[in-house]
């Protein structure tokens, strides 16, 4: 009855911080079997109480502070470590939500959970057990998704300082590999699960990522093999990214985890980078269309290089740049200068600048016959072939050329003075540098000494 009264009152968030006193919170924890370490089985009262507690933590800043002064977190981690078949999916679901909310809303609780309560190891154990039950119930998928969110919070600020933590991380990555590649799991087609895995891969130390691409052996066979490594998990992430790009609904929310995960994996693992490049930026054959045109994964990503939301645009441009081994010329070849200009400007890579990298100097590719055939007529700005066009200056006298040039200068200067455009040159730092007058654009040009006005 107490739970029902509190559930009714919590629907009205007004004065919630006043209503939920320390005494009342302790009663709720008692009903939720979180006031002390209580072993299963649990009752319907337990379920109603954890639902109530979950809502309270979410809606009340006061409870968010109060809860950290209790043993709730400690007892919750202990309970999770003692799950048995009698514990219902609903109780597990709300347990994980409570853990997620506490670690999301109270930053110090993350290290407490990890270091004092051994939360990372216990949650990985729980994830391993739940992953073996995935094929039996879609409800288990919901629990795992909440568990992955809690793990994300625990790992986001964590450092790999001990051998035991390193082993836990590698075991976690092996479980994520299994969740990505098992046929029973793939049949569930859970986008939320794939998103949670991608998010978690971003915060797990990169030194543990090797478990995601195990070596091929008689016991471990795969249809996706590259350089004697099993690339099944990476292929699933690439396919997930492609599916996210096909849906315009919640584009940023859905796409960012996949791009961020693939970026981190490619940046820190040579084999993954080379494999991902084959899937995302295969050897260039179709040069008749702009890079952003078409239905290929490359086209979909290039289209977002000019996307208005910076977070996604930056992640995608960095991912493609890493696949190109941070080679400016190669980036322009695959995306077109027009699409890559924003990223190059932000990085100070305009004007032919090239960043220092740790990548090998070998190119890893040669031009395809199709690309080599049309290379001379590929416009680097648009990134595609253009039919040869007659020069607009053809047939003009030198006086006419000079007249047209001055006419253009005056028009550009007027647009600049009216604030419609802002002409720039490339500064020494490789970034755009505004100019005061259009005649400054002549600086740096290789002009004949005897006639500085000629093009």
UniProtKB/TrEMBL annotation:
GO MF assignments: G-protein alpha-subunit binding; guanyl-nucleotide exchange factor activity
Keyword terms of this UniProt record: Chaperone, Guanine-nucleotide releasing factor
GO cellular component: cytoplasm
Pfam families named among the record's database cross-references: Ric8 (PF10165)
Recorded superkingdom: Eukaryota
Keyword Chaperone appears in the UniProt entry: yes
GO biological process: G protein-coupled receptor signaling pathway
Protein family: Belongs to the synembryn family.
PANTHER family (alphabetical): SYNEMBRYN (PTHR12425)
Protein name: Synembryn-A
